[in-house]
TrEMBL record:
Protein name as it appears in the record: ABC transporter domain-containing protein
SUPFAM superfamilies, alphabetized: P-loop containing nucleoside triphosphate hydrolases
InterPro entries: ABC_transporter-like_ATP-bd (IPR003439), P-loop_NTPase (IPR027417)
Domain annotation ABC transporter: ranges: 27-59
A Pfam short name: ABC_tran
GO molecular function list: ATP binding; ATP hydrolysis activity
Length: 105
C-alpha cells in the first residue's frame, strides 16, 4: 500500500507538483508516471523508495519495493545496457517485490 496526503514536491525552491490524496492498495496494477523533463517524476519515485526526503506531506510505502537504474552503457561483465537491465528485472521478479521502480540513470 502507498498512501499519500498533502504531498508537495519542490526542487531548489521551485514548485514541481502536489498530490492532495492518493491511495494505491493493489499490487497487481501497472502504473506509469508521465511528465515533461524536470517535472519531478524521478524525485517522486525516489521519495517512494525512501532515498529522497525533499518533500512535504505524508508518504507511506508499505510495499516490498525494489528499484532498477536503467543503464544504457556497457557494464563490468560486458553485456549491453539493455541486457543488464533485463537481467536485473528478472532478478527483481524472482524476489517477488510488490513494487518495482525503473529509474533512468
Amino acid at each position: 500500500m502507498i498512501q499519500i496526503k498533502n504531498f508537495k514536491l519542490e526542487k531548489k525552491d521551485q514548485f514541481l507538483f502536489e498530490i492532495e490524496k492518493l491511495l494505491i492498495d493493489n499490487n497487481n496494477q501497472v502504473i506509469g508516471l508521465i511528465g515533461n523533463n524536470g517535472s519531478g517524476k524521478t524525485s517522486f519515485a525516489k521519495a517512494i523508495l525512501g532515498i529522497e526526503n525533499d518533500y512535504k506531506g505524508l508518504l507511506i510505502n508499505k510495499f516490498k519495493t525494489l528499484y532498477i537504474e536503467q543503464n544504457y552503457f556497457l557494464n563490468e561483465i560486458f553485456s549491453s545496457g539493455g541486457e543488464y537491465t533485463k537481467d536485473q528485472i528478472i532478478k527483481a521478479f524472482n524476489l517477488e517485490a510488490d513494487l518495482l521502480i525503473l529509474l533512468k540513470k
